[in-house]
Design a protein that fits this description.
- The structure is a single chain.
- By secondary structure, the chain is mainly β.
- The protein has one domain: BH3618-like (Roll).
- Helices cover 4% and strands 34% of the residues.
- It has one helix spanning 76-81, and strands at residues 2-5, 9-12, 18-23, 33-37, 46-50, 57-61, 90-97, 107-108, 114-117, 122-125, 137-138.
- It has a seven-stranded mixed β-barrel with strand order 3-4-5-6-7-9-10.
- The chain is globular.
Length: 143
């Protein structure tokens, strides 16, 4: 399907790659359909593009690629809602905030990761209450 976006222009999207956010992104409850885009293969960043709002795209990253000490325990209700049956089908991504004037000031939301079930194409954002994780963890803190 063709998707018109503000950031990337018109792009072709495989409908079998569109995720249904059954646990909505905080603050964007009405938007349910998103696709992960990887416009630049030479970077760790991907984009979570809304299928329903052409102007909305979040920069996301897999924290596992950064060698952070980051472990999460999915609550049983999240496993049930996302219909997760095996750990290999899970993709965990985190929304980043990249200041235009200072990319080295990029932060990662570790408190509320995005959980994707690659088998069912269901996804959601969860809050890791009591985890001690930060909503705006500096990406370049240790560099």
């Amino acid at each position: 399907m063709k998707l018109n976006t503000v950031r990337f222009g018109e792009i072709n999207v495989d409908e079998n790659r569109i995720f249904d956010f059954v646990l909505p992104i905080i603050g964007f409850d009405v938007l349910k359909k998103f696709v992960i885009l990887e416009p630049n293969k030479d970077t760790l960043f991907k984009w979570l593009q809304s299928v329903e709002d052409p102007a909305l795209a979040f920069p996301i990253i897999s924290v596992s690629a950064l060698n952070f000490d980051y472990t999460i325990d999915l609550p049983d209700n999240v496993v049930e809602v996302l219909k997760i049956t095996n750990v290999e089908s899970i993709l965990v991504m985190n929304i980043t905030s990249i200041p235009q004037d200072d990319p080295k000031g990029t932060t990662i939301n570790l408190l509320a990761p995005l959980i994707f079930n690659l088998d069912t194409l269901m996804a959601g954002q969860i809050v890791l209450s009591g985890s001690g994780y930060d909503i705006s963890y500096p990406m370049f803190k240790h560099q």
